[in-house]
Queue: 3 jobs
Job 1
Amino acid sequence: MFKSLRGRIVTIVLVMIVAGWQLYSKSLKLGLDLQGGMHLALEIDDPDGTLSPEAKSQMIDQVEIVIRQRIDELGVNEPLIQKAGSERLIVELAGISDQQRARDIVQQAAFLEFKLVLPRSEFAPALPRIDRAIVATLGPDSLAALGRSFEATEGPSADEINAALFGGGATDTTAIDSVPAVDEAEPELNLRPFTFLLREGEFEGIYYVAVEDVELAKAFLALESVQRAFPRDIVLTWGSEPVGLGVGVYKSLYVLQEDAFLRGDRLEDAIAQRDPQFNQAQVAFELSRAGGREFSRFTGQHVGDYLAIVLDGDVMSAPVIQDRIGARGQINLGNSPMEEARDLALVLRAGALPAPLRIEDERTVDPSLGADSVARGKVAGAVGLALVLVVMIGYYRMAGVIAVGALGVYVTLVLGGLAGLQATLTLPGLAGLILSIGMAVDANVLIFERIREELEAGRATRTAVDEGFGNALSAIVDANVTTLITALILFQFGTGPVRGFAVTLSIGIVASFFSALYVTRTFFLIYLSGKKASDPISI
């Protein structure tokens, strides 16, 4: 089939159909420099400088794996994710439309923990110590400069809170207690700065802080003296979203057990969905077998208590444990959009980052720059092809026409190959494409010159053609194989644009070899099929 003229024609037609279908169905993917996108340089966030270079290098290796999984699920075509040195990770996302979303997905630590919510009564005895620590550290004058009296007052009543949250009065399951009275005999407690900011929550284990007071409360909690005044094994953790209480907006502050009884490394799957009862976004998760056993054991021991689901240091939700829970559960996101739930499920599936990341460098490539590059590339390609056509046909006449026909097959094969392999075409890739076109023409020139030599030596036409292809074979093979080896080395050890150049060049070399030795010869056989052996040919 491959030697007969009919078999050759059928083979070329089939190859062209496959290449054309790949190009039509999958289309070419353009790189960052041609269609725009974003470039990020990420480093481990180590503000205190406590991590060694070796530790950062190991963390970057782990970060690369996690980020690659996240970006793959995000659906970005041919992202560039690679280490630059030992402590930096380069991420290039071509054609990304929502850059803020991509930035959040890349940076989110996704550190998931499950912690028990403790009663306020376990934390309340520490409030006087915390207040004293703040007053002693900052001094009355500094507190007075904030424009607050800092004399603790009664917060909203239980009925007010439940009415705001649930539209009704206090229920049997709601427990509201007051902030404990402070011994007024101690003069330093005339100012109660932290207690002043707290409002009781709708169930045991939660306080509320007005949104306008959140930064102040965080500043108080960050004081080292305040940290020393905390009860052992208890932490205060902020809720992820503000809540409305009457006319005010508050942030939740949960009293949690410091140690998590389960972490996200036991997570096996996470899927975004809507709560069928309230139509709110949520993420359904599934734990591993060992994680499911631990989850079931713990929740069975704490029926009636509240369970905090903590993500990156914020409480996402704190449902009551109504019964023993197995390996499946949900993270409720309230009124958040479904896209946020899908992104959260994505990062949970990919796993947590080993450390927070800092964006050291960020650049945005304007799509208009890529469009301009594509337009200029088209013009350059068209001019180059036109010159090739003119020179080949003008110098080699009918043989030049045959070479032009083979070159058309070659271009279709290269573009179809790029589309079929889902390779990304970049500006260096365009350079590789143009270079491979030159090599395809060069192969035809070698063949035609060998045919001319045979004709000048008095060989018959068909014999001269056969000898010309045979004598040119070794030179074409040597040139193509050595260039292909170079392209493979560039692909193996190169980065980004260099690899794009290597891929395009490699596909072009293979297509050039097929075009010059198979397609061109087939076209010659078609041309000679209507001639006698003694008839001259135009070359």
Job 2
Amino acid sequence: MTRRVALVGAGWIADAHAEVLTGLEGVEIAVVCDPDRARAEALARRFGIARVVASIDEIAPGEIDVAHLLVQPPLHEPLARALLERKIGVLVEKPLALSAAAARALTELAARRGVSLAVNHNFVFHPAFARLRAQVAAGAIGRVEHVRVELSVPLSQLEAGAFGHWMFLEPRNIVYEQGVHPLSLVHALLGRVESATTTILESRELGAGQTFHTRWAVAARAERGTAEVQLAFGAAFERFVVQVRGTDGFLEADLRRDTLAGEGKSSWLEFYDSYLASAQRGAMLRRDARRGLKRYLLSTLRLARREDGFFASMRGSIEEFHRALAGNATEALEVLGWCDEVARAAAPARAAAVAREPGPARAGEVVVLGANGFIGRRVVAKLLERGMPVTAVVRGAPFLAPENVRVFRARLEDPESIARAIAGARVVIHLATGSIDTWDAVERTMIRGSLAAAEAALRAKVERFVFVSSIAALDTGGSAPIDDALAADPRPESRSVYARGKIATEQALLERHRADGLPLVIARPGVVLGAGSPIQHSGFGLWVRDNHCVGWGAGAHPLPLVWVDDVADALVAIAAFPGKTLDGRALALATNVPLSARDAVSELQRATGRDLHFHARPLAVSYAMELGKWIVKKVGRRSADFPSWHDFAARSLASPIPSRTARELLGWKPVEEREAFLDRAVRVHGSQRERNTK
């Protein structure tokens, strides 16, 4: 009998669940459920799923047998409860709930209803950890005495300033979002926690009253031994290592590299025993390295199934659940016991902010879409400095706004919410981009979402609609200066998804300007730098590692850089500009700072103390390598777009961009003196870490 499954939540983790489930015999994904219907439909198309619903209330009784719950952690408990009440078994993405007490109530409900409840502690099934557990179970290192786990991970949301993500809302949340991974491994080896002492080693202030602990040290006593856990969130160097010391040996599993190494005792004299220990560890690492390389090549060529560590761990966990259709309630409760113990050290929760009603629009209201973004936060501050009334439109909480700022929570994918926010506005500054990882997502959010915002602006009779595009919409691969003409790159089909999206959005909005009188102004910032911009900016080159940047060419020519505050000043000046002179025009916002990609990376290295490297590489060589990757994918019967030389050339940003319109009409005077620009936009990354560290 076929088991019918619903995916509740269509975010990025849903793809991994769907990929595993489509390979399981006797299992059918019957429904995708997500309030973002467009996102759910995109997932359904990718995996051939027949039905899409917006709420679990739309799932008919008996329509499914099991649900995979793939939503944000605060929704785990209420949605799991609702599904269990309907006698639907549930596999929950970690964590099961936000406390052991809440998880216990769910497990008791599952027992009463006679259905399965389990949590996806997938890293317990990681191949390297599975090999370690097998060695421990076989007695290879004697009796386990101590376990040490180090998790050091970058957080893209932290670097991007996306502080509205749930893991940043309270200091304890990161333990349940990321810390549950290493704690589930400690539990698998040592059992339940008996006592734990947690020390916060480093913290950051993300905003007024919003603290984020970046480094934690945990010392614990457990049922079957002692443990240390080192946690680093937003770290530059990534590590995920489990070390187990026994009475007769030592093992170390590297879950990032998928390797296992260790040593034991021998009967040889000390000098030869030392040699053997090192040689044996080296041999184990070489064996795993060769196996990993072979596995990658075979899976790339579609000669073997996908076996990377993360996906293998997901497959192992999901297969185990569906094989037994049994819950792991005891494990889930005890892992949450570890989480609760560690989270006690977090700073006290902030008092819940009282959600203010935005109230009616005021005379001259300026609506900023994407107000909590890197540029958006500066624009809001600059508007307030000018005494202009501001409506901040943000995708999620929190947005720590002054009392006089109206705040709307809205998404480009939800035209009604955008329309409510724009109603009554004089000016709209559109900085929101939405999801840009696939062309489907770009069409859904960037293009159709921007058109919906434009329609709302037309209905509201706004005086100006400012679309913040990018110089990525231009053909920047030549040597001739680019003027402020409306025409974008005439070959969008040869450009990256992001550039194509910006070009298509510009064209769609220009059609509304010509046909319906949308009072459109297009702003095209250059490579925007400043406090809060990523060190690994793609404008410098291709960051093959977070400290190794491969240039789009020699990296010796000046780049079209611009300080984020200067961009914000220009956007505010556009909003305040009288009359219709700017309507239907495009303004580039870039400077003539004599600073190349090579120079910028070198200055960042000095300012931050990071081991940063810039590698010059001819564009032809990079293109040939990309072409080789395309050939390998095609041989492996994998979908891949043919690499575009035109796009490679555009990424070099070789074309000078004078930005004459902004200078002449707005009186824009950006920072262009080299040392002043470096202090404000580049060297600030060195002092920023000092300010953020307690």
Job 3
Amino acid sequence: MTQSSHATNRQAIHARRPSAPAVVRPALAIVLAVALPDLAQAQTWSVRPAVQATVTATTNAARSGSDQERKDVIGAIQPTIELVGESTSFRINATVGADLVAYANGTQPNRAYPLIVATQQATFVPRLLFLESSVSVRAAERDPFAARSAAGTTENRQTTAAYRISPYIDYQVSPASSVFARYDESWSNTDAVDAADQHFTNVEVRLSRRPLPFGGSVEYTKQIARFSGQGESRATFDTVKARGDIAIGGELIVGPVLGRERSTLFLETNDDNLYGAHLQWTPSERTRLAAEAARRFFGTGWTLDAQHRLPWMTISLQWNRSPITTATSLGVAAAGSNLNTFLDGILTTRYPDPAARAVVVTNLIANRGLPTSVQGPIDVQAEYAQLQNNLRATWVLLGSRNIISVTTYAQTLRQLTRAGAAPTLPAGNLDNRQVGVTLGLNRRLSPQLTLDASANWSRINGLADHSGDVSREQIYRVAIVRAVSPRAGISAGLQHDRLATTLPGIDSFKATSAFVGVNHRF
């Protein structure tokens, strides 16, 4: 691909500004449609307003090259309201807010980014019929090869949305047998890039029997992925799979996986055998390992999920190679991406009650200025089916004074094809490979004073038509956080950003910033 075509792609990405109402209205409609019937029945309610304000002075507000740097002062306010309503048959958790950003010298346009994150679980018929739904509207990266987007800036940010609704049946036929059926619809969209909407439909029906010591399951799945673009495209996968389970010693379950699948890609339908094996190892309630590998139409696919926790430490590993079949890429947290989850696991022994433990985790994060998310690969919303190879590992240590976290990830996205087939790349190819590492240290200096430091290194390489395109980014941050009351705190610190890229239309840059902030939970 020539430099001029690269520049054209970059200009197309930056040409359209996101229209926030276009993605917010469907989110509000889904929240109201799903939540309103239950809200009136809520037996307990929790309302938690909060606000965070930050003032940042930076040497390079536009993240431009060395000959075009412009200093500026950026003001940002993030008001939020968290609502939690629950009864014996449902639970709703919603956070609604905004990220309001203004530049004193007009280096970038002032913007307001909406924030809507809501999840709902409801029981319509006990032990039989259930419903889950989620909505996420937030700001995310507009161009995966540019610098990371961040709260308190408008550079390389767009409003993105993901919605999901999932009714399902989970019925225990006997102490050893069960029936599970689920219908899942999910959508993702953004107005920043032409032809980037995605719609996924997943159907699953499974009959299972516990291994006593022999058991297994038979399941049917249908997955449909639709992509809007210069011409609408879709991919369809129908799979029938049987899994044998053999229990060994009460801790280990192993067995074969056999099946047949029909795949439709680029209007071509093929039937293939599916075969492999799986295992599940649970030596204690603190340790779990589950893995499955199978030969499929695209080659070898696998999933690996390993978890281990202690009262002072937790470690998590997820690795999968499979087609992208859900709209989780736009704001719905992926496994292993939320610091709250790791701290909650560590504190399980000390605080067995989930509600009490959630309050402890919330206070710990707020009072010590911890980030709520763990950095992972940049989300890429392509207009064609992709095969994802995604690896993420996280280690978190919680000591009396120190909280240390280490996260590493490696993700490759390629156009989905049959094994051995040559790809047919559409215009605007977004295949890429990303790797990154994040180190975090949070040290309590006194009962009210905390030092929080982090270092992030990441790299994204373009593949196929974008082969040779590389962006490398480094972010170093250090802050002092002081808790002035149980619900309020102030912080001050420095941050240094550095991006080196080979792509036309994107500047390599350096920027150093000083910031002060205040947060308050009402």
